# Entry
Amino acid sequence: MDGSTIFFHANGGSHQQLLIPTVDIDGLRFTGLAFGVLPGVPGYSHLQEGVRMLRAFLAVSLALFLLTLTSCGPGGKSLRGESRMPAELGLTIVADTHNDVLLRAVEGEDLGTRTKRGHSDLPRFREGGITFQGFSVWVNPTYGPMAFERASAIIDSFDVLVRRYPRQIGLARRASDVESLVGAGKLAGFLALEGGIALGTDLSRIDSFYNRGVRSITLTWNDTTPWASSAEDEAEHPKKLAQKGLTELGRAAVQKMNELGVLIDVSHPGERTFWDIVEITKKPIIASHSGVYELCNSYRNLKDGQIRAIAKSRGIVCIAFYPGYLDSTFTPKFEAMAKRHKSELDSLREVFKGHDDEYIVSRNKLLKDELDTIRTPLSRIVDHIEYVVKLVGADCVGIGSDFDGMGTTPLGLDDVTGMPKLVRELMKRGFTPGDIRKIMGENFLRVFREVSG
Ligand SMILES: [Zn+2]
# Structure
């Protein structure tokens, strides 16, 4: 990940900073982590976690208050008829399995208003033609023992959004909800817990999250959990792992997710974990935001054998847009650029200390011309889609943008409103209308129906 647009760490304490943000939204998240207060570092305490939680609570409370004032206001209008998708394709279900915009909502931002912040909000989802959105519930590992509460606060922010804009968005617990919401011109949203940290070691938390509407869980984020080893740790820090793959607890979690109807998302777990999951799952699995390893050798991407196994499970691979997952040359080019501009970027970091999103916006403005020369073109997303289609067929691929979770987007795709451009690129590359409908959403709805009912 390359630094997120949304993550605030304005609280005090001992901060650690990276001079050069690492890669992907996960990078963005990595940047967020770098700015966070780390366990074991002086300044980390439950009191500070309490302050964070209190801030999130106050933000949600304020939003609830505003809800009572504005639920009948202009934000209440229907979603229908404002998409810029090519009408001739008859796209109804346009699904994106991964977006991190709730990290802005939990800070009190009103997603019903079109802004230039981040990559998405309700008006921009509408303009981009998205009708079925996976909302990531990502918890920074720095939340430690408060991870469950943090995840709950993020889910609260989604509930507030739905209550505030009931004519624009609703929670999809099952496939029939998706169809009725989309049929009514609304955005169907499902909740996707990213990283097992919020589960702690307590299986009953899967029930709690399920009851609140969570329908997808990645067993890890970049950090290994008591459940499973992560892709980052398996690839980059294998020596620190006591065990690779799923633990007994992880196996029990997979079984429970199968029983409840929660999608197993393999986008961050390591390869060993992946194959352990494949061995025991009885339901299709998905990669909610990954790419093809053969086209970009990131540990976050999937090798051919993994793609075949996902297809065999009747699941899908949803292609992420972060340039660092699309093109192996992006990260080295980005790091070289950041090195060339080190002093300017250091100054910016100082100015926006504790406000990663503001920093990234300013950085991208400052370096725009140069950044545009290294940003991966959006056609590269279609290269990854095409690769999966050739390997396992058009039934096994989808879209998992990672909008609002990446600091740099592909060239030509600045935010979610660019989705129609991606569809036009698919048309240009010769995909049939039927295959485009599958890739852009019908495939994911099929998997959602099989797993969640
Ligand atoms: Zn991620």
In short: Residues 26, 194, 267-268, 289 surround zinc ion (CB under 6 Å). Residues 99 and 162 are 16 Å apart (CA to CA).
